Amino acid sequence: MYSLPHLAELPLIDSAMHKPVRGNELRPTTSAGAESVWNRKALYWLVIPYSLDRSTQLGMSRSDAERRNREVGSSQPRPSSIGRMPDEVIREAAAYERVESELRTLLAQRLMRRGSTAEIGHVVLAAIIALLVWPLVPQQTLLGWIGVVAVVTALRSWSRIRLTRTEPDAAAVFTNMRRGMVASGLVWAAGALLFAPHIPFQDLAVLMVIFAGLTAGAMSLLAADPVSFYGFLGTLAVPLAVAVLINGQDRSHMTAVASIALFVLVMVRLFQRSYVDLVTHLRTMKRLELSQEESSRERSFLDALLTSAPNAILTLDKHGKILGVYPAFVSLFGYEPDEVVGADINYIFGTEASGETVIAPEAMVTEEDVVVNELERQRKDRTWLTVRMSAAQVAGVADGVRFIVYYDITAMKRAERAVRKAEEQYRELVETAAD
């Protein structure tokens, strides 16, 4: 791996363009997904260990360590910060397929929820028609028709209740609804054909109004299934027009037939708009749900990554207030989260080893900077550590959140001082021996 001070020299792989870019060319993008990828790549380079420094501690020269890292970097593609991310196109296609696969389920659920109201309405309207035509239509014919309406409505209710208890798939729901609506339409059409020869045109006009109400109710009930609506409308409107012609063929009857045809065209047009709006709404809601699930999953994974990171990490707001710390920070400095979250960074790290009060460099990170510095930091128990601080402002966040990483180099500095002291002692010994 490369050490953090060489971030601008590291080639990253743009997953959308499949080409390397330089670290100092990273910019927020207009795509939320792409922006997340770039932010995670920046985070990846902030939290990686400083392997060059470790390699030099193991006796490997810096040039050898750089050559080794170049060989490793050229032999395998660079991952993003949180595993290998799929291309935006693939992610969008997968989301689209999932939305479309669940859309029929949502439409079926809508059909199941609205069935009981329509069933009660059919019974009530049948009773109203019976009262209207009772003195005019043979009672056996009328009672037989009312009995068929009741049986068909009862079968629809029984089938709907059975399906709700068995959790059927969408295909079963659509099939059941289509059969029930076509049967209901045929029953109502049979009533119109049976009553037309016996009732005056005025009563037939009232019957037409009731049929129009049935159609309007069906448009709301069946908004999730065009086949059911068109089937019900067809089985209702065509026999009704025939019934009007059976009742008479004068100008009033012809006008009524024309009105039925116009009504059908208007209802078809209104239903098409209603169906498109419904599908668009459900699709948008499902996409939003999937987006929230993805965001929650990414946040959980990122939290898990930061929690298990070996380096001490904290986040600051633009005013220098500490927003959060992670377990390695607690282990390194000894402060519990409730002791530092909400505190000013200068209150925690605003004092140098000399006792002088200063402004912590963490609070001075700007949007364009990636700050890397070696600092003396005091632990809660008043002991001092030497740390390498890496700080950057998180791209795409309007509140100016800063991301700070501390790497403990106290042992390395102690070893460097020991080496220098041994070299000085050796030099003095050689000079003394020469004298």
Give keywords.
435 residues, alpha+beta, five-stranded antiparallel sheet, 7 strands, rod-shaped, disordered N terminus
Secondary-structure element order, N to C: EEHHHHHHHHHHEEHHHEEEH
Q: What profile does the largest beta sheet have?
A: 5 strands, antiparallel
- Label the overall shape: rod-shaped
Give the tally of β-strands.
Answer: 7
Give the strand order of the largest sheet, numbering strands 1, 2, ... along the chain. Answer: 4-3-7-6-5
- Relative helix content: 55-70%
* Unreliably modeled segments: 1-62, 65-84
The radius of gyration computed from the alpha-carbon positions, rounded to a whole number of angstroms, is 38 Å
Oligomer: single chain
Average of the residue pLDDT scores: 77
Give the end-to-end Cα distance, rounded to a whole number of Å.
48 Å
What structural class do helix, strand and pairing data support?
alpha+beta
Number of discrete helical segments: 14
Tell me what portion of residues adopts beta-strand conformation: 5-15%
